[in-house]
Amino acid sequence: MQFQKVRSLRGELTVPGDKSISHRAVMFGSLAEGTTEITNFLQGADCLSTIACFRHMGIEIENTTERILVHGKGLHGLRKPDCILDVGNSGTTTRLISGILAGQDFEVSLTGDDSIQSRPMGRIIRPLSEMGANIESVKGNGCAPLRICPGKLHAIRYNSPVASAQVKSCVLLAGMYASGGETSVTEPSLSRNHTELMLSYFGADVSSAGTTAVIQPEPRLTAQKVEVPGDISSAAYFIAAALMVPGSEILIRNVGINPTRDGILRVVRAMGGRIELLNERKMGGEPAADLLVRHSALHGTVVEGDLIPTLIDEIPIIAILAACADGTTVIRNAEELKVKESNRLDIMVTELARMGVDIEGTDDGMIIRGGRPLQGTAVDSRLDHRIAMSFAVAGLAAEGTTEVLRADCVDISYPGFYRDLESLIVR
Fold first, then answer.
1. Is the full-model pTM beyond 0.85?
2. Low-confidence residues of the chain: pLDDT under 50
3. Among 46, 231, 313, 384, which one carries the catalytic annotation?
């Protein structure tokens, strides 16, 4: 797919529902008693993988354009699937569902696509094994496929070496099935807290203090109505486009602004970006707002430390912003990007350099000396949806033609992305 420099971007849009929240709503609705109604669900490939997995375990899930109805069977209502569960490209499905499956009384196997089969699962195998789970990497390489057999779980206090919502959530979900009292997870810095918020919303006894989350065993989850706010990770591409392209002004409605996810807003403001939060409110227990974004003169900044977990998925588009900003931007402590759908750090350095950016890769991030005009080129997405969307936005500000190869991978998280981007373009 090809992109050209545009005159400006104008208009308003609503981005799809938050991917992280959509996954969890289906999972927790399946474990709740009664029927959970989910609106603004993300109909992307990853979230559809979660639906498919729970259907294979006996949960009736109705999926229409207006809503999802999950007919839950309670904490112990899942049944043994008659096939290997296929998570597709979804790391969230893989890691969270493993915590749930570790507490079941049946054997199950998980697999996924080539990307999933190369992503590290040792980070969940270790704590689950400490809890007494019978879980193994089938190939012995610490990756999927995974085999999970019945095991008697017991509570632990886990000190996670990484700030990862997927790891934290996996352990907390297993903790619902554990004997011996409360299970806790302590992180080096606070990761996304969607699991804690939503489990509480469904009736679990979950508490947090600092970077430690605690869950009590055997909760009785009750079905709820969940209105999923727009995904700030999806909104980030339009935020960046409006900031970069002269004369632009965009209103993005109903965006989730959970403080464990709003790092992109803090970085944009630190770079001099003009962004206003309007109509702040709660959606399904999560903070949300409308975002008004205007073209801005940007300058470099430093992105590091506790800020990183709040914007880990937005670093590729932040790198694009930095390339268009005056001065130097330094990104540190982002080594987690090496084990996402692709090695996003290396790809951003390689492809931005091909677009004429003065950029240097480091062990845990990159140094970007911005201000040079971007030059259009062909960019291989490596089938990574966030790489594809980032360079589509870059193409709107670059001289010449930018071609994104294997561009359809955006369907993983944002099936209508190119249509929505086109709707805002003033040529």
1. yes
2. none
3. 313
